[in-house]
Amino acid sequence: MKCSICESTALPYCSAEMLGKYVVQYFRCGQCQYIFTETPYWLDEAYNSAITKLDIGLVMRNEYMVPIVRSIINRWFDTNGKFIDYGGGYGMLVRMMRDRGFDFYRQDIYCDNLYAELFDITDIPPFKAELLTAFEVFEHLINPVAELENMLELSDTILFSTMIQPSPDVSPKSWWYFTPETGQHIALYSRASLQALADRFGLNYNWNNQDIHLFSRQKINNSLFKIITHPRWGGWYNKIVGERPSLLRKDFLLVQKRLQASFLPPTN
After folding, report:
1. Residue 55: per-residue pLDDT
2. How far is Cα of residue 136 from the mean position of the Cα atoms in its chain?
3. Residue 159, SS3 per DSSP
4. Where is the signal peptide (predicted)?
5. Which of 55, 189, 201, 208 has its CA 20 to 30 A from that of 214?
6. 138: which residues sit within 8 A by CB, 6+ positions away?
7. Nearest one of 72, 104, 115, 98 to 245, comparing CA atoms
8. Residue 72 CA, distance from chain mean position
């Protein structure tokens, strides 16, 4: 088996019972330590519900990420630009960022847009985003190289979260992040595998030594990145920069106008 990230040899590593019924083989790359499953034939079943029952941290995760995204945009990007939340789920982050004055749009092929309807990337003409966020997405990717290529068509900078393998002998029994019960986590990364992924595209790679990562064509100081992504210091920086006018009222009027237009009788 070949590693899809660095193309080195990957050998059988461990197995687990997916969705409580499929015994699935995991492989591990001998070069970059990327762990991935055999061809995931069970994904249609796993995505019967795009947000799994085990994702009870969805609301807290978005509350945690919003000030971090704000501080990164405030420090390094055009705050008046457009932004994309890739694999944006119910649209919660998009709504929260728009409420804080940032022109965010959602992308997700699996999940219904509940909180940011009319603010999908398909609702407006194509654009290049200042920043693309992809929180808890990379561990779902069948082919991270191909998917990152798609992301880079939308933005030159990818801010994402995924957990790094905590030890060299990690296993489904020792690390909860495998979550075979849901069948959706099919890719598990080491620090080396993410560096190899960035290198394939000539991207700079920043990491906060926890679960937040940045791939960018822009060179960013990693010490400052760690400070900005720290909840306390990032929050302090946001207070200095100040609040942006919320898009809530503007968005309300847009949705209201669309609704009113839908009530009009068709013209002959």
Report:
1. 62
2. 5
3. strand
4. none
5. 55
6. 144, 160, 162, 187, 189
7. 98
8. 15
Q: How far is CA 55 from CA 49, 70, 89, 142, 177, in A?
A: 11, 24, 12, 20, 11
Tell me the per-residue pLDDT of 94-126, one tens digit each, with 9 for 90 and over. Answer: 999 999 999 999 999 888 899 999 999 999 999
Question: How far is it, in rounded angstroms, from Cα 242 to Cα 199?
Answer: 36
CB atoms < 10 A from the CB of 91, how many?
A: 24
Note the pLDDT tens digit of each residue in 139-152: 999 999 999 999 99
Give the pLDDT confidence of 235-265 residue by residue, as tens digits: 899 999 999 999 999 999 999 988 888 887 7
Whole-angstrom distance, CA of residue 41 vs CA of residue 4: 17
DSSP assignment, residue 180? T
Q: Output the pLDDT for position 52.
A: 57
DSSP annotation of 171 = -
